[in-house]
Design goal:
One of its GO terms (cellular component) is proton-transporting ATP synthase complex. 22% of the residues lie in helices and 26% in strands. By secondary structure, the protein is an alpha+beta fold. Strands 1-2-5-4-3-6 form a six-stranded antiparallel β-barrel. A two-stranded antiparallel ribbon has the order 7-8.
C-alpha cells in the first residue's frame, strides 16, 4: 500500500476518534469546536492523493543568447536535431538550422518581437512538419501553413516532414513534354521537361 495513502487514512481516522472523544454537544458553539467539525467534514485526503497525476516529463529548456533579423542563437540545447522545432516563451516557433558546438541557430517562424536575450526556450522533440490534406487545394497559406485568404481554418488529418525524401526514379512519371522557359540561352543549354 502507498505510504502516503495509509498516512492520510491514519490522520482521517485520528480526527474522527478525536471528535468522538469530545462527546456530543461539547464545544459546538465555540470557534474551536466549529473548526474541528469543519476539518472532519472535508473530503478525505485519500481520494485527493489517489487522483494525483504522477506522470514525470523531462523538458529540455535553454536560454536565448542573441536574437535579431529573424534568427535566434540559443545556448543549452545539447541534444537538438537539425530541423527540430522549439517553442519560445511567447509561443513563437523556431526551426534549428545551424548546429554549432556551444550554441544553436534557429530561424524564427513569426515576428519574434517579444523574444529577448535571456528568454526561456523549450525543445519540442519534433522535426519540422507541415499539415497536408485535399482541403489545401485552392487556398492561400503562409509559411506556417496558416490560411491567409480569409476563408477560415483548414482541416488536416495528417502531416508530413518538410524535408521528405523524394520518390524513387521508378515510381515517377516519365518526362514526356519539353518545357520552354522563353530564354534561348537556358533552353539551349539546359533542357527542362515536364512530367
Amino acid at each position: 500500500m502507498n505510504p502516503l495513502i495509509s498516512a492520510a487514512s491514519v490522520i482521517a481516522a485520528g480526527l474522527v476518534v478525536g471528535l468522538a472523544s469530545i462527546g456530543p454537544g461539547v464545544g459546538q458553539g465555540t470557534a474551536a469546536g466549529q473548526a474541528v467539525e469543519g476539518i472532519a467534514r472535508q473530503p478525505k485526503a485519500e481520494g485527493k492523493i489517489r487522483g494525483y497525476n504522477r506522470e514525470v516529463k523531462v523538458v529540455n529548456t535553454c536560454t536565448v543568447l542573441q536574437v535579431g533579423d529573424g534568427i535566434a542563437r540559443i545556448h543549452g540545447l545539447d541534444e537538438v536535431m537539425a530541423w527540430e522545432l522549439v517553442e519560445f516563451e511567447e509561443r513563437t516557433i523556431g526551426i534549428a538550422l545551424n548546429l554549432e558546438s556551444n550554441n544553436v541557430g534557429f530561424v524564427l517562424m513569426g515576428d519574434g518581437l517579444m523574444i529577448k536575450e535571456g528568454s526561456s526556450v523549450k525543445a519540442t522533440g519534433r522535426i519540422a512538419q507541415i499539415p497536408v490534406s485535399e482541403a489545401y487545394l485552392g487556398r492561400v497559406i503562409n509559411a506556417l501553413a496558416k490560411p491567409i485568404d480569409g476563408r477560415g481554418e483548414i482541416a488536416a488529418s495528417e502531416s508530413r516532414l518538410i524535408e521528405s525524401p523524394a520518390p524513387g526514379i521508378i515510381s515517377r512519371r516519365s518526362v514526356y513534354e519539353p518545357l520552354q522557359t522563353g530564354l534561348i540561352a537556358i533552353d539551349s543549354m539546359i533542357p527542362v521537361g515536364r512530367g
